[in-house]
Amino acid sequence: MLDRITASLPSLAPAEQRVGKLVLTDPRTFARLPVRELAERAHVSKPTVVRFCRSMGYDGLADFKLKLAGSVSEGVPFIHRSVDADDKTGDVLVKVVDNAVAAFLQYRNAASTVAIERAADAIADTWKKGKRIEFYGVGNSGIVAQDAQHKFFRLGVTSIASSDGHMQVMSATLLGLGDCAVIVSNSGRTRDLMDAADIARRNGATTIVITASGSPLASTCQIHLAADHPEGYDRYSPMVSRLMHLLIIDVLATCVALRIGSSLQPILQQMKENLRAKRYA
């Protein structure tokens, strides 16, 4: 991204060139400053800052800063580097955290908003009809399934979470038209999850899968939320993939909460009061 800005500078108006040079001088600072301060630092007007972003092919300043932050973070040192035997604790901290941040930013930039909207609509519609919502996962993905149940339960959306293969198959057998199954899998090749997804789909339930692109589960479920993070223990992928799945669940839960709307507010308020009364009794 920075190379493209450098190559484009000669073709820009002088005022826009000053904005471009400001980006190149300190991209991290540019990505976090408000338009007023950016304009002051470049000695241009606020509309000029926006024009520069659009001349680079972005919708505006917000879109430009979002992509800039992702590009800069993905290019920081230690990303995708294994931990060395002589690394100090500070090096390990930076490598692990930066790798996770880079994975999240890559997901954000590549995520399909259409698929997320379809998944949120399906879950919200299932809830409104009083039908069953179930979350399936195995191993680390089973932890994500349990977390998903907890998050949606807080929204007043009751569901079932299962990390046992036999239970998943039996539970999927009870699903029918209008129900919804959300399957979480890092590899997308777990036999028990594939069986449960196939049974749920054949019974008429909507199947949503959070998994890697190109996997069997990605091709067999109706709605695919791509979560691509390759395996490799030197890149801490078991933990990063689980965090990515939890992040996607957070996005889904927030989208569903918005679809439920104002009726959610008294539920959350009553839940908070009940928990407070229990905690301080």
UniProtKB/TrEMBL annotation:
Which residues lie in coiled coils? none
Which segments constitute the SIS domain? 123-262
InterPro entries xrefs: Homeodomain-like_sf, HTH_RpiR, RpiR-like, RpiR-like_SIS, SIS_dom, SIS_dom_sf, WH-like_DNA-bd_sf
Residue span, HTH rpiR-type domain: 1-75
Keywords, sorted A to Z: DNA-binding, Glycolysis, Transcription, Transcription regulation
Which CDD domains does this one have?
Answer: SIS_RpiR
List the PROSITE patterns: HTH_LACI_1, HTH_RPIR, SIS
Give the signal sequence positions: none
Annotated protein name in UniProt? SIS domain-containing protein
